[in-house]
Design a protein that fits this description.
With about 425 residues, this protein is α/β, with parallel strands linked by helices. The protein is built from 19 helices and 14 strands. The chain has a nine-stranded mixed sheet with strand order 8-7-6-9-10-11-12-13-14, with helices on both faces. Strands 1-5-4-3-2 form a five-stranded antiparallel sheet, with helices on both faces. The chain is elongated. Its EC number is 2.7.8.7, 4.2.1.136.
Length: about 425
């Protein structure tokens, strides 16, 4: 059983000013105490009121056969749930502009265990997510190139390419040097290995794609440098990682020749030190400032990887809160590169980077929770992406139901 309700915050504010005993009529002492701790109490009141209405709808009784006080809103680790007599309900309470929206779903008896295991998505990140339309084809989800791989370093581009497909890209091409083409063709099932007899032929092919990620395992030899110079001069949305960043550190002038904010850089602190000529200590002590300054100066989207990865374009900044120490493992950054590249077709580059960093970390968290941090490998992050995307897709389906409920029932019963 599911119930949904929406309440306008301004109407709650108006009612409280007109009816001084409103809180006591609707909420118990514990609930009122929680309301008073909120900086903006009207948002919380509207949310909790909507939650009680949603529970009454889930029970199909409505407020009338039971009182507001019969519905008790409680919390486990700041996650709300409701108790009504001998029944318990999961609650999701959200705020969108001037509205509070609540969903109530009947829970099993062991709600404490389930609530502790429940993953609550970050609301701002969740709002970025786009569910797939039904009437589509693979081109709608992006034709992506991963430019990378070299003798002895085939794993990096292999991970990036497979991560891009797992993250929803429609087509993924791994552009590789001729000496590893046969090997990569055998290794791949869904990604497509491509090699070219000259750089002009490569450039012509890349022109028809939606986005390019360059660097994983590409090496630092003369051929890699020639490929780098050809690709960075193309007028395409571009992500640069790994060896691409090391080549870039010697040629920063290439960045300033590119169109503003069409480039994503994904350095760890060591690579960022080479890009900026700052010491590791300076970077560690001023991560947000040095990231902001670099992104603003060079007009790029910067993803400064590490504990609490930073994403910035020089003005706005996002500090990620997903991920764990188990992800400090070979290939983890290559997986992130693949995820970002998959999002570059249908999101702004800044949103693509934020969403990908969050998804990447959450996938690692899900693996660590079910298995262990110690055993986590880069490929495990790829394997758990479906769990993460399922969370986003389920929430978006609920958002659709909320929109439908809003159209059907613009005004909650108590407020009419």
């Amino acid at each position: 059983m599911i119930g949904i309700d929406i309440v306008e915050v301004k109407r709650i504010e108006k009612i409280i000013k007109e009816h001084v005993n409103f809180l006591q009529k609707v909420f118990n002492e514990d609930e009122i105490e929680r309301i008073r701790k909120r900086k903006n109490p009207y948002e919380r009141i509207a949310g909790m009121y909507a939650a009680k209405e949603a529970v009454s709808k889930a029970m199909t009784t409505g407020i009338g056969k039971m009182s507001f006080h019969d519905i008790k809103i409680k919390y486990i680790k700041d996650m709300p749930y409701a108790e009504v007599f001998d029944q318990r309900f999961y609650l999701s309470i959200s705020h969108e502009r001037n509205y509070a929206i609540a969903i109530a779903k009947l829970a099993c008896k062991n709600i404490s265990k389930n609530m502790e295991e429940k993953i609550i998505l970050d609301e701002k990140i969740k709002s970025l997510w786009k569910n797939r339309e039904e009437d589509t084809h693979k081109g709608d989800f992006g034709k992506i190139a991963i430019v990378g791989g070299s003798l002895g370093m085939t794993g990096s581009s292999y991970l990036s390419s497979n991560a891009a497909l797992k993250a929803g890209a429609g087509l993924v091409y791994n552009i590789v040097p001729r000496e590893i083409f046969d090997l990569m063709s055998i290794k791949y099932i869904e990604p497509i290995a491509k090699t070219f007899s000259n750089l002009e032929e490569m450039e012509k092919f890349l022109t028809g794609l939606d986005a390019i990620a360059m660097g994983p395992g590409m090496g630092l030899g003369e051929y890699a440098k020639a490929v780098f110079e050809k690709v960075i001069k193309m007028k395409k949305n571009l992500l640069i990682d790994a060896d691409g960043l090391n080549i870039l550190s010697k040629n920063l002038e290439f960045l300033d020749e590119r169109k503003n904010f069409t480039t994503i850089l994904t350095p760890h602190e060591g690579e960022f030190a080479r890009l900026t000529e700052l010491s590791l200590e300076e970077i560690k002590n001023n991560r947000e400032k040095v990231a902001l300054d670099f992104a603003k100066k060079h007009k790029v989207i910067l993803v400064l990887k590490g504990h609490k990865t930073i994403v910035t374009k020089g003005e706005e900044i996002y500090v990620n809160n997903t991920g764990n120490s188990g992800m400090a493992t070979a290939g983890s950054g290559d997986v992130l590169t693949g995820i970002i590249s998959a999002f570059m077709k249908n999101y702004s580059l800044f949103d693509a980077a934020k969403l990908a960093v969050y998804v990447h970390g959450l996938s690692g968290d899900i693996y660590a929770k079910k298995n262990s941090k110690t055993s986590l490998r880069a490929r495990d992050i790829i394997e758990k992406l479906d769990n993460v995307f399922n969370l986003f897709e389920e929430d978006k389906n609920i958002d659709f139901l909320m929109e439908k409920e809003t159209r059907i029932n613009e005004s909650p019963q108590y407020l009419t």
